[in-house]
Design goal:
This protein is mainly alpha-helical and about 140 residues long. The chain has 7 helices and 2 strands; from the N terminus they run H-H-E-E-H-H-H-H-H. Helices cover about 55% and strands about 5% of the residues. Strands 1-2 form a two-stranded antiparallel ribbon. Keywords: Signal.
Amino acid sequence: MHWLRKLATWAASLFAPHPPAVAVPPPPPLRWDGVPEAFHYLRAAVEACGETRVAHFDHTLGRHVPPIERLTEEQLDLIGAARTESRRRGDRAEIEQWCAPPERPRPSIHRTMWAVQGMLFLFDQVDDERHRRSGDGRL
């Protein structure tokens, strides 16, 4: 009967409410002093979107939610504008090269490189997300 009690406890735990999320303090602001001036046009989009490379688990949906799905229309507009400017300048390869981590980056610059590179990943996803939300795919 001991195993039956363990089974009942385990089954009850499956339906128990999830613990509340732990409040995590916001990260320090990104440092743009180490970013080449030519890439500062990305700043508004990068700072408005926050972490764009980690898919957080949503207990209500029962799945990890990609960052692109969490963004507001205003954030998508900022990403679209930054992507358009990047295409106009033709500097994506230069940005990607700058984001390649050096051997010993300063932690503050590494965080900024991570955020800028995350924005480049969103450039590739923004059209699909617009299409998913509106059905017409226009940006």
